[in-house]
Structure prediction request, 88 residues.
Amino acid sequence: MVVNTVSAGRFELDGPLCFPNPFVNVITLNQACSGATMVQVLDLAGRVVLERKNPGLNIDASALRNGSYLINITLKNGAALNQLIIKK
Prediction:
């Protein structure tokens, strides 16, 4: 279990933020992130390479090149979560 404490309060997440990791074309968010208002995928230089508003649980990331990325997920309550992800 990952516990993330943010200014919006305490947020408990059972399992990984997103999976599979590494992923091939689709990133699936943890059910606890079903209320996400924004998802951004950044390359390691900090550039936003993918952005989705109100994304649902499955994100098509097939346009990304193989490599490492940081996924930032913003929830309705203002909590901001992030995780390192790898595309194969």
